[in-house]
Design brief:
There is one protein chain. By secondary structure, the chain is of the alpha/beta class. Helices cover about 35% and strands about 20% of the residues. It has six helices and seven strands. Helix 2 links the parallel strand 3 and strand 4. Helix 3 crosses helix 4. The chain starts with 7 loop residues before the first strand and ends with a helix.
Length: about 190
């Protein structure tokens, strides 16, 4: 699919260690993000962490369940905490959870949405490094709400230095969220202006 997109890809994952399990935190702009991540993060065994309602979609939801991706119930707090604990177990088994901390596809490519806290809780509970990854350009190829692609776009993907979670506890989730959001927003602005 990537070859037929006609896009130019500028990818820098040099900050990452292929032998490390991470909690990937990635900005989300387009359905095109999914094949990009499967392709470029293939050295890591990762599992998407997604809201439970996505698993109800025909075909897509079945594929998510069959791939053993992680469902999080946002409506039922008790079940949501059980789901986070399951994600911790997945991370501890060597699979890297991948989270879109904005919680949804961002319709505004000029800035990141405020991050949700759930991903921070997961990262802090499993004590795996957070690997921030930024993508600029997928929304130009396949904009939110559009079904027709615009080939030939330039897409940039960059991993930032991982954040060591071992110096924090779950009580520090807001602090870690702020550190992550600040680092990603600064790098995102720089990438958009390159």
């Amino acid at each position: 699919m990537l070859d037929s997109s006609g896009c130019e890809f500028d990818v820098d994952l040099s900050e990452l260690d292929e032998n490390q399990t991470y909690v990937f935190m990635v900005n989300h702009q387009s359905f095109f993000d999914i094949p990009l991540l499967f392709h470029y993060l293939s050295p890591w065994q990762f599992k998407f962490v997604a809201k439970k309602s996505l698993f109800d979609f025909p075909i897509f939801g079945h594929a998510m369940a069959a791939g053993k991706h992680i469902s999080i119930d946002r409506e039922n707090r008790r079940q949501g905490m059980k789901d986070i604990q399951h994600a911790v177990e997945v991370a501890n088994s060597g699979h890297s959870p991948l989270i879109f901390p904005e919680g949804t596809r961002n319709p505004n490519p000029n800035k990141l949405l405020p991050f949700k806290t759930g991903g921070m809780i997961l990262a802090l509970k499993c004590q795996k490094p957070i690997a921030p990854i930024l993508m600029v350009g997928p929304e130009k190829f396949l904009y939110k709400g559009k079904l027709i692609a615009s080939p030939g776009q330039k897409i940039k993907i960059k991993a930032l230095p991982p954040i060591d979670t071992t110096q924090y506890t779950v009580r520090d989730r807001e602090k870690v969220k702020g550190i992550l959001q600040d680092a990603m927003e600064k790098a995102y602005a720089e990438m958009r202006n390159e």
